[in-house]
Amino acid sequence: MSVVYFLLLLLPLVSAQTYHWGACPVPKVQPGFNLQNYLGRWYEIEKLPASFERGKCIEANYAVRQDGTIQVRNTQFYKEKTRVAEGTAVIPDPREPAQLGVSFSYFTPYSPYWILSTDYTSVAVVYSCTDILRIFHIDYAWILGRSRFIPYGTVEYAKELLMNEGIDLFRMKPTDQTGCKDN
Fold first, then answer.
1. Is the pLDDT of residue 20 over 90?
2. What is the largest distance, in Å, between two alpha-carbon atoms of the chain?
3. Which own/partner contact pairs does 159-168 have at CB distance under 8 Å and 24+ positions apart?
4. Cβ–Cβ < 8 Å for 122, 40
5. What pLDDT, on a 0 to 100 scale, did the predictor assign at position 17?
6. What is the DSSP letter of 147?
7. What confidence tens digit (pLDDT) does each residue in 137-175 have?
8. pTM, full prediction
């Protein structure tokens, strides 16, 4: 009975997320992933809902720090202000360099950040999933582009890749990239 109460307490926290019953899917990641080619600026094209991404003009910038960790700098325009979140990414297992872990606080564990596919120059498909007691999971998915707008066919290819890996895209939505200012 206490597990039921615990789950009921968690539901408001995940209301802006995408959650499903059961364990996380385990999709295939980009073979031969090259971090150096992935670094730089990526614009969010579409995503599954995330409580930490409610604005427009969302982008992420990746750079290697001197200590070998990866700086993750996410920006968005929300409530008339540019908001910045800086985090750290690591590659926990060098044999799987496309399976990164990302954290935006010293107090939280690294969350999965898996690059399922990228050509490094125009599009990347990213997935993250966290199991909650293997009873249900919360997942995130992003379609990223090197420019604010990418061809419709490229977006459809990315969605098909996610669906073929068993990821439910019912709640996937485009990110507003109109009227954005580039630095």
1. no
2. 53
3. 159/46, 161/116, 161/117, 161/125, 162/27, 162/116, 162/125, 162/127, 165/25, 165/27, 165/28, 165/116, 165/127, 166/25, 166/27, 167/25, 167/27, 167/127, 167/139, 167/141, 168/18, 168/20, 168/139
4. no
5. 63
6. S
7. 889 999 999 999 999 999 999 999 999 999 999 899 999
8. 0.88
- The predicted model gives 122-131 an average pLDDT of 95
User: CA-CA-CA-CA torsion for 53, 55, 61, 62, nearest 10 degrees?
Assistant: 0
Can you tell me which residue has the tokens 């579409």? 46
Partners of 61 in the β-ladder = 41, 73
- In contact, 64 and 39? CB cutoff 8 Å: yes
Tokens 């070998």 belong to 68
Q: Which two tokens stand for residue 71?
A: 């700086």
Q: Taking the CA atoms of 97, 148, 75 and 109 in sequence, report the sign of the dihedral they define.
A: negative
Query: For residues 76 and 58, what is the distance between their CA atoms, to the nearest angstrom?
Result: 4
